[in-house]
Amino acid sequence: MIVSRVATSTSERLQATFTRPVRLAVGGAGSLLVVAGCLLPWATFFFGFPGKVTLAGFPGGSRLYPLLLVAVAPLLLVAVEGRRRAGLAAAWGVFGITAFNIAAIGFGRDLPLGLLEERGGGGLGAVAIGAWLALAGGALLIAAFASLPSSDEERPFRPGLPAALELLTIALSLGLILFAVVIALEVDETSRFISLIAFATAAGMTLARLNVFAYVTELFDRHRTVTLAAAAIAAVVFPFTQGGNAYWIRVFASIGVFAAAAIGLNVVVGLAGLLDLGYIAFFGVGAYVGALFAGAARTTVHVKLPFLVVVVMGAVIAAIFGVIIGAPTLRLRGDYLAIVTLGFGEIFRILAFNFDWLTRGPNGISGVPDLAIGSYNFGATNEVLGFSLPGFANYYFVELILLAAIILAFTRLNDSRIGRAWIAIREDETAAAAMGINTYRLKMLAFGIGAFMAGAAGTVNAHVTTQVSPDSYGFLESILLLAAVVLGGMGTIGGALLGSAALFIVPEKLRSFQDKRLLLFGIALIVIIRFRPEGIVANRRRKAELHDADPSTGDASGAPPGAPVVGAVAQ
Amino acid sequence: MQQFLQQLVNGVVLGATYGLIALGYTMVYGIIQLINFAHGEIFMVGAFAGLAMYSYVLPESMQGNPFIVLPLVILAAVIVSVTVALLVERYGYRPLRRAPRLAPLITAIGVSIFLQELVRLFYPGARSQVSFPRIIEGPNLELGGVTIARTSLFLLVVALALMVALQTFIRTSRTGKAMRATSQDADTARLMGINTDRIIVLTFALGAALAAVAGVMQGMRFVSIDFRIGFLGGVKAFTAAVLGGIGNITGAMLGGFVLGIVEAMTTQYLLGSAYKDVAAFVVLIAVLVFRPQGLLGERVAVRA
Q1: Residue A401 lies in a domain
Q2: Strands, E, within A294-381: which ranges?
Q3: A110 DSSP assignment
Q4: What is the CATH number of the domain that holds A392?
Q5: Are B110 and A525 in contact (CB < 8 Å)?
Q6: Which chain B residue's Cα is nearest to A325?
Q7: CB B47 within 8 A of CB B216
Q8: Band of the pLDDT at A507, cuts 50, 70, 90?
Q9: Final residue of a structural domain among A510, A527, A548
Q10: Which of A266, B130, B180, B299 has the most CB atoms less than 10 A away?
Q11: Which residues cross the membrane (chain B) (predicted)?
Q12: Is A277 exposed, middle or buried (0-12, 13-18, 19+ CB in 10 A)?
């Protein structure tokens, strides 16, 4: 808090002293320093530290990120006024990434909490000239941008492209998203992954503050059919590009299940505003139904039903549970629902543990066979048009169909009278009731539909994981799903998808944090709710509502923690 | 019959712990209508702080003397718990006071996970159960065939004393009056010159102190604690608060005792220990269906 206050007053002083030529000079020098620094080695000697930090002339590893960020800086400086916040985001990104890498190179092993695995160490002596140059450059850039007048008028980004180019932009944006995901998947070392995350955050903030995102979202909205078609095609084509390798297909199929459940939860939490802390239980109900009636090796119900019947059955049974839980609690205010659903989630787990005759207790139901519809076995490898598709691709496609169905249901609901009623309830239940909405029935509907979707996703998941046991459906799993929704952005499809992907990939990547991942997860929840309660992909209405009373704070270090607090108290 | 009496006593003792924690939930809820999910973890942190005092600060020569040990252990627990609770209030909840209802709830979950993990990772040996000193030694007391441990008796006495003290404080003191005013209508209270922020902080502090005492007692009674006790303890205490009528101080204590007795009885006569945690949730759901305002609540739950 103190730091940001000082920064504000410093930036005022900077604005007074830096005239335009001075600013341009400082900014230009900063940019050059960063470029030079990134081309020079960052570490004097290192075998262990990842990313070729000792090479000169070639910006390998984390050195690429500041370089990419700094590319926009001169542009923003010259295009001047009104670009202060965007420039600051980029400049802080450069500075932050460099500082982090210096710390990692110098003290990697000794960082507090043992954050960075194995490598780095040897103190600042191990840090080479390049890193210091880049750091200094970053600092100069921060100063240059901070000296811009802070009158930050909202200037919409409207290039006014011809239609064909607009379509191209859509394709490029989608491609960029996919590319980012693939890159994120490929990066192995923790320190590089953290640099990447920092880069993505800084670049994202820069673009957001230039209103580029708003423009792209608007394009997506305007050319909805095209966007959807492109996304669908990309999703369908993806397995064919893998050359028979199942790894990524498996990852994406798992993300798909997770996302399907997250979108179901989004109906409950995002649209109707009901906090469900035991949502995974419905998923679990579906999974148990799916496993028990699929003729699993260790099933206790010796009835094998066709898959399509089982999906519907799992969904319906989950929905029945939803109604049983919802009926008594939805009459009350939302907080009670949170606790009751939490209790229900626990009851589900305890019952699954103890109902040996049905669930086989802690052992769970294992040996769920591959899906089969008719005589078609989903585990088999296929040759399609000369491409070899691993068996897992079949599940991927099942996932895709499920996801598509759930997304379709979500959007249709969202755009309907029911969806509007839900949003009205979420915003103000009393007012909604006064408008003639039967709040109880609609909340039940949301709850039931959410449970239904989770049940359906659960039955499919039983086949994907081939095993169902009570431990997979605990409180933490519920919270993870909730976090995917909240983090991604409540009430949006893109948010749920992005959130699921992020929550699936990030923990995988931060393996060296090992058991500190949960700790970080807790911190992340607190911080995100504090600074970006609307999530990564903001629902426009929700964003307007959340930032209503919050005067925009023109500081790239994020909103200074002090300011909104003071505002809230003063109100 | 003897068994019944024994279970009754067990239930009452158990309920005293629930009641102490429930007070924190109910007071905070009464004042800012927030379910402070992280309150269970405050209770857990208190238990660990007390243990840390005992194992790392007190010299061994003193460890045998309960008259020195007990006050110090409780003091340490209270100080740490209150500090944590105030930090959470200041940096977690206060910035969100005008945000939609979901926001602070999610923050609370984050805080909950964070505190659990903090203890699990950084308290030596806390990855599994940690043994807790009994502190009050001596044989169990027998009364008409009913056994009660000295610790339990002590717990009961302390809990009742604290509850009476709290009740008196809120009923009679000037600050207590300000608390009641704030809970009735915070805006008007502010117009009357009450510093509502201070009242809210005080409420959190009081709740945390009571939870810390409960944490130490729980440790002494079960002779072991682990980082997970906050979750179940919190949910059950919340149930107790709802049972008594959330926002109602007497109700929270009553709810605690009723829930404790119900849990002891169902474990003994109905469901067996595998389902002992189910009882609390079933009670919670039953209360919400049949008497959502709780045993002592007067207002019907607001629909909003």
Answers
A1: yes
A2: 365-366, 372-373, 376-377
A3: G
A4: 1.10.3470
A5: yes
A6: B285
A7: yes
A8: confident
A9: A510
A10: A266
A11: 12-32, 39-56, 68-88, 100-123, 143-170, 199-217, 237-262, 269-290
A12: buried
Q: Which of A269, A334, A518 sits opposite B117 (nearest CB)?
A: A518
Interatomic CA distance for residues A84 and A23, integer angstroms:
12
Contact B276, B38 (CB under 8 A): no
Instruction: Encode A487-556 in three state secondary structure.
Output: HHCCCCHHHHHHHHHHHHHHHHHCHHHHHHHHHHHHHHHHHHHHHCCCCCCCCHHHHHHHCCCCCCCCCC
Query: Minimal Cα distance from A424: which residue of B?
Result: B304
pLDDT tens-digit map of A56-77: 555 566 677 777 777 777 666 6
A309 and B CB contact within 8 Å: no
Question: Which of residues 253 through 292 in chain B touch A, CB cutoff 8 A?
Answer: 274-275, 277-278, 280-282, 284-285, 288-289, 292
Interchain CB contact of B123 with A (< 8 Å): no
Closest CA to B47 of B84, B19, B13: B84
Q: Are residues A363 and A420 in the same domain?
A: yes
Q: Are residues A155 and A30 in the same domain?
A: yes
Residues A183 and A313 both lie in one domain: no
- A178, pLDDT greater than 80: no
**pLDDT tens by residue, B8-55:** 888 999 999 999 999 998 899 888 888 888 999 999 999 999 999 988
For residue A549, list chain B residues with Cβ-Cβ distance below 8 A: 98
**Residue numbers of the domain that contains A192:** 2-221
The number of beta carbons lying within 10 Å of the beta carbon of residue B165 is 10
CA angle A532, A71, A35 (to 5 degrees): 120
| More confidently predicted of B58 and A148 | B58
Q: What does A412-479 look like in DSSP terms, one character per residue?
A: HHHTSHHHHHHHHHHH-HHHHHHTT--HHHHHHHHHHHHHHHHHHHHHHHHHHHSEE-GGGGSHHHHH
| AA identity, residue B123 | Y
This model of the complex carries an ipTM of: 0.85
Q: Is residue A531 included in any domain, yes or no? A: no
Residue A568 within any structural domain of the chain? no
The closest of B77, B66, B73 to B210, measured between CA atoms, is B77
A386 pLDDT band, cuts 50/70/90, is low
Task: Tell me, yes or no, whether A391 and A243 share the same domain.
Answer: yes
B300 interface with A at CB cutoff 8 Å: no
The total of structural domains in chain A comes to: 2
How far B8 CA lies from chain A's nearest CA (Å)? 25
Q: Show which of residues 213-232 on chain B sit within 8 Å of chain A, judged by CB atoms.
A: 231
**Angle, CA of A54, A56 and A62, to the nearest 5°:** 60
Residue at a domain's end among A221, A242, A275: A221
What are B280's two structure tokens? 């609390």
Taking 80 as the threshold, does the pLDDT of residue A148 lie above it? no
For residues A253 and A152, membership in a common domain is answered with no
What DSSP element (H or E) covers B143? strand B141-143
| CATH numbers and ranges of domains, chain B | 2-290 (1.10.3470)
A125/A266 same-domain check? no
Please give the model's pTM, rounded to 2 decimal places. 0.78
A213 shares a domain with A254: no
Are both A103 and A204 inside the same structural domain?
A: yes
Of A332, A515, A529, the CB nearest to B106: A529
Angle at A245 between CA A244 and CA A248, to 5 degrees: 130
Can you give A200-269 as a three-state secondary structure string?
A: HHHHHHHHHHCCHHHHHHHHHHHCHHHHHHHHHHHHHHHHHHHCCCCHHHHHHHHHHHHHHHHHHHHHHH
Q: Which of residues 173-192 of B touch A (CB under 8 A)?
A: none
Report how far Cα B91 is from the mean position of its chain's Cα atoms: 22
* Within a domain: A167: yes
Would you state the structure tokens that stand for residue B255, as one six-digit string? Answer: 């709810």
**How far apart, in whole angstroms, are the C-alpha atoms of residue A237 and residue A239?**
6
Surface of A (271-290) touching B: CB under 8 A: 273, 275, 277
